[in-house]
Amino acid sequence: MNIFQYDQVVSHRNLETLISEVDVFKDKMKGNAWIGLHDEPDNPIEQFIIDSYDFHFAHKCEGVVGFEWWIHVMEKDTQMITFHADHDEDKRINEGDMSFPMLGTCLYLDDIPNPTIFFNTEQTSKYEKEIEPFPPTSAVFSYADKGKFLVYNPRYLHGILPCSDKQSTLWYNVWHYKPKNLDRVGLSRLGFDNGHYIMKKRKDPVLYLGDTVTFGMDIQQKSMTLKGPHGTQGIGDLWEVNQ
Questions:
Q1: CB-side exposure of 8: number of CA atoms within 13 Å?
Q2: Torsion angle of alpha carbons 243, 151, 117, 233, nearest 10°?
Q3: CA 14, 44, 2 angle in degrees (round to 5)?
Q4: pLDDT tens-digit profile of 158-214?
Q5: Comparison of pLDDT for 27 and 228, the residue scoring more
Q6: Are residues 154 and 160 in contact, defined by beta-carbon separation less than 8 angstroms?
Q7: What are phi and psi for residue 129, nearest 5 degrees?
Q8: Three-state DSSP state, 4
């Protein structure tokens, strides 16, 4: 599957700044936000997005226009991120067409041992039930580690199951056009520095051969059985499990 990670991409000081900014922004944002490739950043989060793109992806991507970004803070054991593929929601609703970003990323802001799960299943039309392959034949379990930076194919269905601990993540997608429903967040936080970036070796998923646990779940209103790692908290790990 087209997923990989870097163990750490920013200095500890800049990471603590981003964690503080997420605490500020999480209650002020009404939805996903936008920053253009050539826009001037207004805050440390926008600065991180621009800098990390330049550092890791600018030499690999063509036709990039800007970035959609958002924050997930899960504070209750009833909260979860429903399994979905990243796409242009406005275009799906108003034009009946599916359009996907070029790249998806996630920065983990803690080390809570509840994985982000990715399937090799993609949404193939505007109808949620039309997904292929189903059931999935492979799943990747990405375990949080503070400062870990995950890169993924945004077409993969992915989500996070409920957990009893607070989990915080910062996400952005790389787009080749600007979706109509996205705007700048409009919150200025002055006095921040350019990020200090760390080049860590890229890590791809490792095939998991240990004990597994299975349980039933629903994905896009379809029932399936998920097989996952058993008996490990897996801090920072990236396991691929054949289903």
A1: 12
A2: 100
A3: 80
A4: 999 887 678 999 999 999 999 999 999 988 876 656 656 676 789 999 999 999 999
A5: 228
A6: no
A7: -75, -15
A8: strand
Dmax over Cα atoms in the chain, in whole Å? 50
Helices (H) and strands (E) in the chain, counts: 3, 15
Query: What architecture does CATH give domain 3-242?
Result: Sandwich (2.60)
Q: What is the DSSP letter of 205?
A: -
Helices 12-25 & 44-56 angle (0-180, nearest 10): 130
Angle at 152 (CA atoms; ends 22, 108), nearest 5 degrees: 30
What is the DSSP pairing of strand 206-207 with strand 238-242?
parallel
* Residue in the structure block whose two tokens are 């163990």: 7
Distance CA 213, CA 230 (A): 5
